[in-house]
Structure to design on (45 residues):
């Protein structure tokens, strides 16, 4: 799952068990931010 918070994309791995969804952690993703925001970051790799 990808979540946008303050113009930054975070990756959130999760587990689905029955009717429950358990979010494991949150990982900031520089590459995901570029991919999903479609914006031009001022940063260079």
């Amino acid at each position: 799952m990808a979540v946008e918070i303050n113009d930054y994309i975070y990756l959130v791995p999760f587990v689905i068990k029955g009717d429950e969804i358990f979010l494991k952690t949150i990982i900031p993703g520089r590459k995901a931010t570029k991919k999903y925001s479609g914006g031009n970051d001022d940063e260079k790799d």
